[in-house]
Recover the amino acids of this structure.
């Protein structure tokens, strides 16, 4: 890490570095530097090159987006603006990345101090702040000029594409995890726990409904907007001082999409009362109070620019993005866990089961969720 970190334009004396954060995709490290007597931290990430095949384009997007937001915050005289947007630290030769000897791509950000991120919201008020930060992020980017941003992962939230890949994984069943073979084995209990037959059935039954958002986007019924595409709540930094959302991080997938993808991913994470990989499914409850608060926050920023076809789908967005995550976790499980970082056997299947439980919890209160949306969008 010392060698990598030294390739960036950082003053001072390197002290140490350690792995950092809970991300599923990149490898993240925090380093400490002695800058003439003051310890200053930086965040370094090895960009997952298997996931992001054009890291140069990822960084081009991130530079455009962060400079745009920083310019706005500074122009408005926002106090403490430097903690409200990620700042890319260039390499010593002026690039927003460096390459290591193994061909890896690295980037560095200023470390945003006195902030934290959470996997589960603790109060509706917190959910409200998170919602407002995503609405604000979309608003900040609404007037970004120039070329369309690169699609850093093509068809990322395209449910039809995700289902095609799921069916392929199912057909090949390369890790032998699809079929429930408990009747044919000695160790039936373990086998049943690790096979995915029930989850596969759920996905098949929900395929048609899952296509609602992507069809609306493709048919032009809802507008394409610049969005973040990965707004699970632990990608939002929260200020330790007042517990308000401070800065939207993890910008690799900032690209064209629909506002509903971002709202949906936040609903999925901030209105659930459990972490995404909680195995005790009795704890996986969709909380209508957190949902309402989150929407209130989001709409306080976004109601001005959303069109009716978008507001009609606000509840569906939460269900939809939860479904796409269940499907992606299941597909990765069937393929042998190549995509997401996992820390235990069956981790992706646990995540899939958790997301299905969350959908069931939403479905059991669906009419009330629609009433909430209608009440807030008048
Ligand atoms: P991944 O793509 O693997 O999810 P992230 O970019 O989300 O990686 O980073 C991992 C975690 O590190 C985030 O969830 C966030 O809590 C924290 N983080 C990210 N960027 C910064 C930053 N500039 N300063 C402080 N913490 C950060
Ligand atoms: C990944 O990078 P991270 O951990 O914030 C994934 C998201 C999923 C999320 C599920 C680029 O997000 O799409 O929603 O895991 N990011 C990518 O936890 O695939
Ligand atoms: Mg992340």
């Amino acid at each position: 890490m010392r060698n990598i970190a030294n390739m960036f334009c950082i003053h001072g004396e390197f002290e140490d570095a350690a792995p950092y954060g809970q991300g599923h995709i990149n490898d993240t490290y925090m380093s400490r530097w002695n800058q003439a007597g003051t310890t200053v931290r930086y965040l370094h990430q090895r960009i997952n090159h298997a996931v992001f095949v054009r890291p140069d384009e990822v960084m081009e997007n991130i530079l455009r987006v962060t400079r745009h937001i920083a310019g706005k915050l500074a122009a408005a005289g926002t106090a403490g603006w430097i903690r409200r947007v990620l700042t890319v630290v260039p390499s010593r030769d002026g690039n927003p990345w460096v390459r290591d000897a193994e061909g890896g791509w690295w980037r560095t950000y200023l470390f945003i101090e006195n902030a934290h991120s959470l996997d589960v919201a603790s109060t509706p008020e917190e959910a409200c702040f998170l919602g407002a930060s995503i609405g604000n992020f979309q608003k900040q980017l609404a007037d970004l000029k120039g070329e369309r941003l690169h699609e850093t992962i093509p068809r990322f939230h395209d449910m039809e594409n995700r289902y095609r890949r799921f069916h392929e994984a199912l057909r090949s069943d390369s890790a032998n995890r699809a079929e429930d073979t408990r009747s044919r084995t000695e160790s039936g209990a373990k086998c049943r726990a690790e096979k995915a037959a029930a989850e596969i059935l759920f996905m098949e039954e929900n395929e048609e409904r899952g296509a609602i958002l992507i069809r609306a986007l493709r048919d032009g019924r809802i507008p394409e907007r610049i969005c973040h595409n990965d707004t699970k709540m632990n990608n939002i930094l929260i200020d330790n001082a007042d517990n308000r959302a401070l800065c939207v991080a993890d910008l690799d997938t900032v690209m064209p999409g629909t506002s509903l993808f971002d709202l949906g991913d936040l609903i999925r994470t901030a209105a659930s009362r459990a972490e995404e990989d909680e195995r005790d499914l009795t704890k996986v409850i969709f909380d209508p109070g957190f949902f309402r608060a989150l929407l209130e926050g989001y709409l306080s920023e976004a109601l001005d620019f959303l069109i009716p076809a978008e507001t009609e789908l606000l509840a569906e967005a939460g269900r939809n993005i939860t479904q796409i995550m269940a499907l992606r976790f299941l597909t990765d499980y069937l393929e042998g866990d190549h995509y997401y970082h996992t820390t235990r056997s069956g981790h992706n299947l646990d995540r899939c089961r958790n997301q299905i439980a969350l959908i069931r919890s939403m479905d059991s209160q669906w009419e009330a969720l629609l009433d909430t949306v209608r009440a807030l969008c008048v």
